[in-house]
Amino acid sequence: MLKKFALIIIVLITISSSISVAQGNDSLDKKQKLYEVNCIKSLEVQYEGIVEHTIYNAIVFKRKYPAYNFENILKSLKNVSQNKMNPIIRYEAQLAILFIENYSLFEEVQISNRFSPELYKEISGKIHNKILALN
User: Fold this and answer.
1) Does the pLDDT at position 21 exceed 50?
2) Pairwise CA distance, residues 39 & 14, whole Å
3) φ and ψ at 81, to 5 degrees?
4) Could you tell me if 15 and 42 are in contact, meaning their C-beta atoms sit under 8 angstroms apart?
5) DSSP string for the chain
6) Does pLDDT of 74 surpass 70?
């Protein structure tokens, strides 16, 4: 259990440090690419806590860098949404995909840099309200 916790902490520190704001465009591009690689690898691990926090961090990353090309991250999220055993994680991945692909719908959503499951309720609520408005 201690090994699992230590691994989670190491991955979260790596992810957190990789999305911090850099001082130059060159450095920023490198940090963004590093985050992308870390995100994809973290979505592939077996530890649900790491995957869940990585999904959340992908949403935070989209908020910080909305113009970044999320194609590879989206592929990994789609894989999680279809293949992970835990239905909650699959659902969270689906919500992250919707958030990233339809970012303009969620610009008012409040996002904390600290993991908060309430974010998924807010995203699903926005989707629900949009559907009701269309009917």
Assistant:
1) no
2) 10
3) -65, -20
4) yes
5) -HHHHHHHHHHHHHHHHHTSPPSSHHHHHHHHHHHHHHHHHHHTSS-HHHHHHHHHHHHHHHHH-TTS--HHHHHHHHHHHHH-S-HHHHHHHHHHHHHHHTGGGGTT----SS--THHHHHHHHHHHHHHHHH-
6) yes
Distance from C-alpha of 93 to C-alpha of 80, rounded to nearest angstrom: 6
Half-sphere exposure in the Cβ direction for 45 (13 Å, CA): 18
- Rounded distance between C-alpha atoms, residue 122 and residue 98, angstroms: 12
Please state, in angstroms and rounded to a whole number, the distance separating the CA atoms of residues 133 and 18.
Answer: 38
pLDDT digit string (tens) for 28-45? 888 899 999 999 999 999
Greater confidence (105 vs 10) lies with: 105
Mean pLDDT value across residues 16-22: 51
